[in-house]
Structure formats: C-alpha cells, structure tokens
Amino acid sequence: MTNLLGNSTKLILNFPSSTIGTDDLNVYQLRHSKDMDKVIDINIELDKNFNHDTTEFQSEQFKEWALHPSSSFYACDYKEQFFGLLFTLRLKPEVFERIMELEIDEKDLTVDDFATFDEIGCNHMISFFAMSEKVASLLFIRYYAHLIANQKVIREVGLATMMEDAKKLIRNMNLHHHSSKNVGEGLELQTYRETLPNFLASEKVLKMILSKQSCPEE
User: Fold this and answer.
1) Closest of 161, 140, 129 to residue 215, by C-alpha
2) Is the pTM of this model over 0.85?
3) CATH 3.40.50.300 at 2-209, yes or no
4) For 6-53, what is each residue's pLDDT tens digit?
5) Which distant-in-sequence residues (6+ apart) come within 8 Å of 218 by Cβ?
6) C-alpha to C-alpha distance for 6 and 124, rounded to whole angstroms
7) H runs (alpha helix) in the chain
8) Which of 151, 134, 147 is nearest to 213 (CA)?
9) Residue 68 CA: distances (Å) to CA of 29, 72, 114
10) Spatial distance between the Cα atoms of 31 and 121, rounded to a whole number of angstroms
C-alpha cells in the first residue's frame, strides 16, 4: 500500500500507528454518523488550508452532498476520534466532462448534477485526508471496494487538484493529466481522469486489493 500512497506528507500524516490494529479503526459512510457536521467542518478547514481559500466550499453544501444516496463520503475514526476522510461524488457524465475541462467549478455543483445510484455516472473525488498510512489504506480499500461493486454503472474516475502533494499520490493511482488552468498567483488547478477498467487495472491497485487488509463495502 505504501507504494500506492507515495510520499504525500500533507494529505497523509505520520501519526504513530504501530500499536493500532485495523480492527481498532472504523471506516463508515458519513451520512450514517451523528458526527457528520463535525467531520464536514474539519474538511472545510482542511480545504481552506490546502487550497489557499480558493475553492469557496460551504459546510451546508457538503452536508447536502453527503446525504445524497449516490455519494460516497467515507470517514475513519479511532476510539471515536476523527482520523481521516475520503469524499467522492457520482456525477452525470456530461457534468463530469465539464469539471474535467475546467468549465465549471466544484463549488457550483448541485445534487441535480449527480447521477442516481443506478444510472451511468463518473466518480469524482473531492476530498481526502488521513492521519496515517494505515488509515489511508483502509479508506482507499473501502473506495476501491465501492468502485468494484458498482463497476457496471461507473464509467470513469477523476479529480481536480492544485496541491503538489496530491500529485505525488495521483502518479501512483493510474490517473492521467487532462487539463489545467491558472487560478491565482503561483496556483494551477489540474484535472486527472481515467476509465474505471484502466484505473482498477493498475498493478499497485491490484496489490492493494489483494492484500491481507480488508474493509466491508457498506
């Protein structure tokens, strides 16, 4: 899993976890949690820090997205304390295309842009953070399990980022650069995408899926 995660030091911290077993970590869908507001507020603060206040996301927006049945908003707790998150949206293909082409901003998305759970869509990652590599591993295993379980209705996967640290992770995920634009002094927003079959066919991803670590789909 370390090979997949690369050397991302802002998105994946180095919290001592040698004494924390995977059974001690709880990965769950955020919409089922009483802590949804708290986790979303943490994500908003992280986003402001990572993206220099350029994305203009609002907490209420994320809460609405998290409750949509086709969204996958995963969080991880250790002894009821926040340890990580991975948020993705299932977008209609034409909306995903506009995001990839940087024609619209993520902050302008509404639930009307989301594919329903049983219609063809594209999975777009919008947030990720983990306190340790072990937490990151469990979050990604859960994400890949979701992709595999729903591969008949997911056409592509992608994301947009301006973080150099994120690009270290992306290079190992079999995602390919698609478009870019300047969004401020010294800031460049880049999009990455890949078809789901090619995304899942990555050697590093296959090794992760076949590892001894496991996490239930729902």
Assistant:
1) 140
2) yes
3) no
4) 555 567 887 766 778 888 899 999 999 999 999 999 999 988 877 656
5) 29
6) 21
7) 2-5, 36-50, 59-67, 93-100, 133-149, 164-170, 196-200, 203-209
8) 134
9) 11, 9, 8
10) 20
